[in-house]
Amino acid sequence: xxxxxxxxxxxxxxxxxxxxxxxxxxxxxxxxxxxxxxxxxxxxxxxxxxxxxxxxxxxxxxxxxxxxxxxxxxxxxxxxxxxxxxxxxxxxxxxxxxxxxxxxxxxxxxxxxxxxxxx
Length: 119
Hints:
By secondary structure, the protein is mostly helical. It has helices spanning 7-21, 29-40, 46-61, 68-78, 81-95, 102-115.
């Protein structure tokens, strides 16, 4: 289990995963399972991952997440730059569970603007 001080950044990451799942407006079981798996890779329990995703969905439905770019920036700020490539690969895995539409590609391109760094 990650330290309490680290949980805030995983909540931001869960919000970004929620946005990735909602790009095409429908969420599949496969997407949801992939997002849970991605969060558990950071040491969260399945229950915690599910809870963070549910919180992200609630915030989105209540209009508390209006600007995806603010979430992308919050994730970029919370994680070390060397972690950004891995986060992008997780977002890609979630996005690839749905048909790749123009909107999906735009979302991924936008994530790359915040999380991609040339070495």
